[in-house]
Amino acid sequence: MATRKALVRAPSSRLAEGLVTHVERVPVDRGRAVRQWEEYVAALRDHGWRILRVPPRDDCADSVFVEDTVVVLRDVALVCRSGAPTRRAETAAVEEAVRAQGYTVRRLHAPATLDGGDVLKTGDTVYVGTGGRTNQEGVRQLRAAFEPLGARVVPVPLTQVLHLKSAVTALPDGTVVGHPALTGFRELFPRFEPVPEEAGAHVVLLGDDRLLMAASAPRTAELYSGWGYEPVVVDIGEFEKLEGCVTCLSVRLRDAPAAP
Ligand SMILES: NC(=O)NCCC[C@H](N)C(=O)O
User: Fold this and answer.
1) Which pTM value belongs to this model?
2) Could you give the strand order of the β-sheet that contains 76-79, starting from the edge strand earlier in sequence?
3) Is the CB of 210 under 6 A from ligand 1?
4) Where does the signal sequence lie (predicted)?
5) What's the CATH number where 90 sits?
6) Which residue's C-alpha comes closest to atom 11 of ligand 1?
């Protein structure tokens, strides 16, 4: 059976100062955020994921959004260089964590920028959002790292959202899901299904047709149930205030190279 491990990183004490780009800043209740984060981690663990905790970093307000720091494909971990300079110090400890799991580590180099939240992998296709945190050089370096592994890299120009995965993710059968108002680029996907809520577009594939998703998308959860999936719902409201979603709070390592 495939090994399933998830990298997570506890919220910084300065979480409330995290970046906001497409939403208005509202106060974040850090105590509640920590409880929500613990429930998120418990949901992964309860569904068979081994949790690997990256040491927290208080001086990096956004470090809980660990997905943005690294992209893994097969045995290669590509350490990102965020389009947000204040987030670049987050990668050092993540690089150490993936190296310890046996990954071959590659790094993005200036002038490339790329956030993991811009990278959606489904089958052998790697979609990458551009125009926000990720630039053309970031796409070029992503191609150089992943095309030799057999990936087909497809750029997706973005304007309305922070990251590609703020707008779309993919179901276990490869169908891409997103809210119609935020997916002017949906023709790029061979199979696309609209969902009624923005947050409904964010799913983490837990295995066995279970989908981890946010409590803020109840109508989409019902829709997915009707399609035969089992939604596992977590409240991540404090992170949504900072443009976070269920995908960005972990890095899923399916088939990590080293079995400890
Ligand atoms: N992959 C993600 O969706 N990451 C969310 C990052 C939110 C954070 N406040 C940021 O602006 O970088």
Assistant:
1) 0.97
2) 70-73, 76-79, 104-107
3) no
4) none
5) 3.75.10.10
6) 19
